[in-house]
């Protein structure tokens, strides 16, 4: 373990913040990379462990109980990792149950108790076939994988302590399905939009809802919407069986955009809501320009939160509070 006062970790989506009920908090960054070879391995044509070298994980963490501004970097062991961690890339960071979860939408979750005296990383696979690679195979030079949150999401939802949910709405012709993608045409939709809940062992997923895409398109047609692939999936934080999806009438900038709520248990859709937040300069076919969030135009997902529930609560008048302290 080493301590330092400045942190420069590069990828912002690898940072997580965790707060405890006693007021202590931690900010952490995780990096996963192939472990440097030993001298013997460097001299060998192949690694003794096979074609795939081991990985190392470094946790850079600042806790409020540490000295002010003190960051500490620790190399952590990874339990149950396997060879797929060689291609690890963090897509999302989710705090849950006193732990931080780093998510790679192509393979799984790395879970760590930041407040443990001897923190470790535990790997839990997502209920998907892991992709043998990190980036889009056709764009390896640019080293990009696109925004996978358009197709998959991991979040915490439900009352009380909640539960970790995973939703997969990815269509089967996407590049990360590997060989399966070559057996589908560009217009082929996925078989299902499926949601899972993570069990207490942090490794087992239980399916708690699924809608066949043909069924979904049948429902959107009845609501006078098109059959454009829905994305991105967002879980209702208070009602985990409800998944919000964005549907456009056409695949172009400025197309009419709607948000629909899908009940994963009853396999029904609620009345769609037009998503109109800002004007756009372009529209499909001329005429009046439909509007949509700039986040959707740049393929950024929604940010679900409970902030709005606090807007109706009484807030103490700061002037009154100051007068009370002055009298004391």
From TrEMBL:
Pfam families: DUF1618
Domain DUF1618 positions: 102-244
Name used for this protein in its record: DUF1618 domain-containing protein
Taxonomic path: Eukaryota, Viridiplantae, Streptophyta, Embryophyta, Tracheophyta
């Amino acid at each position: 373990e080493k301590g330092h006062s400045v942190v420069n970790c590069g990828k912002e989506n690898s940072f997580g913040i965790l707060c405890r009920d006693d007021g202590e908090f931690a900010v952490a960054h995780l990096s996963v990379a192939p472990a440097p070879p030993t001298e013997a391995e460097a001299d060998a044509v192949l690694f003794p462990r096979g074609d795939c070298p081991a990985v190392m994980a470094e946790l850079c963490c600042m806790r409020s109980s540490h000295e002010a501004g003190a960051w500490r970097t620790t190399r952590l062991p990874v339990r149950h990792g396997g060879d797929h961690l060689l291609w690890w890339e963090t897509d999302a960071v989710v705090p849950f149950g006193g732990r931080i979860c780093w998510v790679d939408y192509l393979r799984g979750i790395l879970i760590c108790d930041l407040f443990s005296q001897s923190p470790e990383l535990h790997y839990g696979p997502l209920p998907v076939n892991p992709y043998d690679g990190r980036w889009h195979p056709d764009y390896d030079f640019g080293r990009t994988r696109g925004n996978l949150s358009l197709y998959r999401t991991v979040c915490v939802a439900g009352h009380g302590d909640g539960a970790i949910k995973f939703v997969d709405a990815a269509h089967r012709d996407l590049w990360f399905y590997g060989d399966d993608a070559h057996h589908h045409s560009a217009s082929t939709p996925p078989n299902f939009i499926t949601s899972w809940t993570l069990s207490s062992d942090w490794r087992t997923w239980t399916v708690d809802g699924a809608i066949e895409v043909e069924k979904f398109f049948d429902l959107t047609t009845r609501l006078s919407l098109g059959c454009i692939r829905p994305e991105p999936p967002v879980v209702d934080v208070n009602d985990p069986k409800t998944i919000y999806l964005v549907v456009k009438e056409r695949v172009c900038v400025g197309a009419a955009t709607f948000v629909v709520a899908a009940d994963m248990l009853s396999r029904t859709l609620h009345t769609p809501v037009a998503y109109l937040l800002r004007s756009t300069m372009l529209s499909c076919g001329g005429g009046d320009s439909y509007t949509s969030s700039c986040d959707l135009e740049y393929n950024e997902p929604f940010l679900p939160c409970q902030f709005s529930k606090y807007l109706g609560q009484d807030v103490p008048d700061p002037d009154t509070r100051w007068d009370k302290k002055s009298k004391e």
